[in-house]
Amino acid sequence: MAAYDVIIVGAGPAGLSLAVELAEHVRVLVLERAPFGHTAATWYSYGDRVRDHGLDDAVAFRTDRLVFVSPNHKHEMFDDCVVLDHGKVLDIWLERARARGAELVHGEYLGHDVDASGVTVRSSAGEHRGRLLVDCTGPFSPIVAAHDLIVRKDAWVLAGARVRLPAGEVPLEIGYYPLGDDANTYLGIHPFNDTERNVYVFQGQSDTLGDPAALQPLFDATLAERFPTAELVAPISGSIVSGVLRKYALERVVFFGAAGMMNPEAIGMGFNEILRQVRGFAAGLRGALADERLGAAALHRVAMAARDREAMYFQRIIGAFSLHFVKSEAKWDGGVKWLNSLGAESRNWMRNEMSLDWIRRATLNLHKAVPIRETVQNIPPRELAFIGGQLARFVAITAVGEARRRFEDVRRRLALRKRA
Q1: Burial class (CB in 10 A: 0-12, 13-18, 19+), 149
Q2: Between residues 265 and 47, which one has the greater pLDDT?
Q3: Which of 23, 95, 141, 254 could link 137 by a cystine bridge, Cβ 3.0 to 4.6 Å?
């Protein structure tokens, strides 16, 4: 039996990008049950991240903004935004992983056993021996389920298709538009080229991993109503899950991607989080392998090091407010008003690139955009305590900062008087 340093289960964007980052340094096996390069996703990202990962050849469409629409408001989020050909992304990573020495095996994960010197993975293709198992199997990870690791889970659930439309029939913009139903379903449109669009309906759902098939009838009806001339090219579906695990690693097993709940709460940015986190995560794994720190506690620290804790807290607040937006009569008006209050800085939210000062200001603006009375009525009590604590913390930070500024102002004036 061949021996590897790392066995990656799952060859989606998480598994393949990680294989690319690791294969030049350690021996890597990637195990995948579906055909390699297969996905039913639609991804948009940012020009700088795509260039940084050498994925420019996979860009299908480029624009300078995202458009968010609510019943009474609109927000244009300006950034260098790109829609990617998801098949080309996976093909690029497959080619690089092979070129760097990774072995790719087609087989279904059946289980694994851990001992003092490594892990044995059982699959429909046989047994595979490694020092470390990385679970990149997605939100329905059998390992996560078997160990009952999920504490909290929510999902953006989507169903749609790439469609062909007459040129000029749909604006060339990445946009999100409300359907106005009780579930607060949105229509997402990602331009692919002059005549093709990735079109999908999506919902934010609580306490679920999501069922894209359940949204398919709604998508079919929406497509027939809004784009009756559309020609179906390929299906799109998925669940972008966020939440909390009891722990993010077991002995010689660590979770990455959707299996590790890496997506920020309230925004469906799983692919972008992979681009943002994979290099730091891979570096952490290389260090753990070099030092033989492959126990559950050490690997948990590697997984958590890829996350920004302050950003996680803030996105949890937005996740709680999203429940308010779903229940609100205005359906996301508060959310789009909040984005407008941030102006050009709204892009930091979607990028999940936030300083503590930005989070402080954004939290205070959120409470201005959504009345406290409505917040208390619609947000679950378990989240209200957390939100109240965070709000109090940021109010205190603001007060302390203001006191310091006043003190420094007085000190400067006294110094100027002495000089005079």
Answers
A1: buried
A2: 47
A3: 141
DSSP 113-170: EEETTEEEEEETTEEEEEEEEEE---TT-HHHHHTT-EEEEEEEEEEEEEEE--TTSS
Tell me, what's the pLDDT at 366? 86
Has residue 269 got a pLDDT over 80? no
Q: Is the pLDDT of residue 1 over 70?
A: no
Task: Classify 297 as helix, strand or coil.
Answer: helix
In single-letter form, the type of residue at position 197 comes to R
Q: Which residue has the tokens 């079919």?
A: 220
115-132 per-residue burial string, b: 16 or more CB within 10 A, e: under 16: eeebbbbebeeeebebbb
- Phi, psi dihedral angles at 312 (to 5 degrees): -60, -45
- The residue type at 12: G
User: What top-level class would CATH report for the domain 3-305?
Assistant: alpha beta
For residues 109 and 37, what is the distance between their CA atoms, to the nearest angstrom?
17
Q: What is the pTM of this model?
A: 0.89
The model's confidence at residue 416, banded by pLDDT at 50, 70 and 90, is confident
Does residue 111 come out as left (phi exceeding 0), alpha (psi in the -120 to 50 range) or beta? left
pLDDT tens-digit series, residues 29-38: 999 999 898 8
Task: Report d(CA 319, CA 366) in Å as an integer.
Answer: 12
Q: Which of 45-59, 200-214, 263-277, 397-411 has the weakest average pLDDT? A: 397-411
Q: What does the domain layout of the chain look like in residue ranges?
A: 3-305, 309-403
Question: For the stretch 293-320, what's the b/e string if a residue is b when 16 or more beta carbons lie within 10 angstroms of its beta carbon?
Answer: ebeeebbbebbeebbbeebebbbbbbbb
Q: Indicate whether 42 pLDDT > 80.
A: yes
Nearest partner of 245 among 309, 153, 154, 151, judged by Cα? 151
Show Cβ contacts of residue 87 under 8 Å, excluding neighbours closer than 6 positions. Answer: 37, 39
Question: 341 CB contacts (<8 Å, ≥6 apart)?
Answer: 365, 368, 369
